[in-house]
């Protein structure tokens, strides 16, 4: 009645002015009717004036989108009963809202009603399959058929197809669903393997490499000449690099269009601005291959540059940081020397007393004949003298000669690592000896200690790439697995989520650029 009265009072041709008015939230009468879940009122308002069905409110939601929030399918059916022009619907696409909420029944109704509604895109040019891939909504892909397959071949504003979005997010199941109907290259000429490596999805990289067809893409180049290995190096993705170099089909010496291998790129990043993540990426590549054989031919100036991670770390002096590092290591070395010196005179089991032992055995260690004790003595001696030599080196590193200080620090660090490893063995053997009368406890401590010794050994050897260059495949695979464990232990950030910063560089990334698989469950 109020609507009809207002129409009668209006002047001119705008008889529906009251239905066009918006409140402070940007809602028209139709928006409010949808929000109050009044299906009769919604139907009545639409019969009088249809235009507000297209309009967005202050939250960029049209009545169609708001109907999803109400959970009232009757209202949605009433709105869809009219012949709507999908191109005029403002704000957020209602189809995308249905996907986000997992309202698959409404999606089927939309598909039956009007395919144009199903093909709507958001502000980033994402269609329904882009969004479903982002949210890992597997059930949406039940709607993938002859009428909708073209949507799986559409690019968004970043040039990515839905299959590349799946690779970016690490959704392996969706990659398997889409690879048969989707092109394999995105707008930058990149495959799903390129994208997974670029975004650091190590588990996805491994799954793609095991795939019969997709695994053959391992050495493919994109429009900038980058292989998946190059992109993993450009974006400093150590976990993805390990998964790639693990594969025997990888060509470590392929050059991009600037004449650089992946190792050249990773080393260049470390040289420009050192970080733990960049160093790890360079270490993985250095352990897997030698430097580029073509680098000296194509870049003669490279003959005077550093070509290993250790050389790069020593190429830029920083006296203040070097002095702090020396002082810290000197304290640790002195502490190890003190502890091992004390352990040499307080051995497990003690010594034979003067009143109980024979003349030849007085003052001799009680457990001298036990092999575990002999290991204890040997390792304690190694730890003692390594730490003492390290102390001497670090004292010499206090001199003003920078080259001498760096060399002394480097040698002292190697000795200190050996001392720490040996001291760990001293502790393990000493404790095992003292509780030997309780076999289950002694065995538990001994074997659990061996596991920790393995981890310590991995940490000690992690800074020495030649240690990982063993060509025996089983040992090399073990080293790579330990490398992955090392990355996980230190919680190295190894994936990208923000597209906005690096997508502008995606078409021309190189060593000169500056920049780092579990799936989510379906609703």
TrEMBL record:
One of its GO terms (cellular component) is plasma membrane. Residues 305-316 have a biased composition (Polar residues). The keyword Transferase does not apply. It comes from the Eukaryota. It is found in: Membrane. The chain crosses the membrane at residues 330-351, 371-394, 415-438, 444-465, 477-496. ANK repeats lie at residues 59-91, 188-223. Keywords: ANK repeat, Membrane, Repeat, Transmembrane, Transmembrane helix. PANTHER family: ANKYRIN REPEAT-CONTAINING PROTEIN ITN1-LIKE ISOFORM X1 (PTHR24186:SF50), PROTEIN PHOSPHATASE 1 REGULATORY SUBUNIT (PTHR24186). This is PGG domain-containing protein.
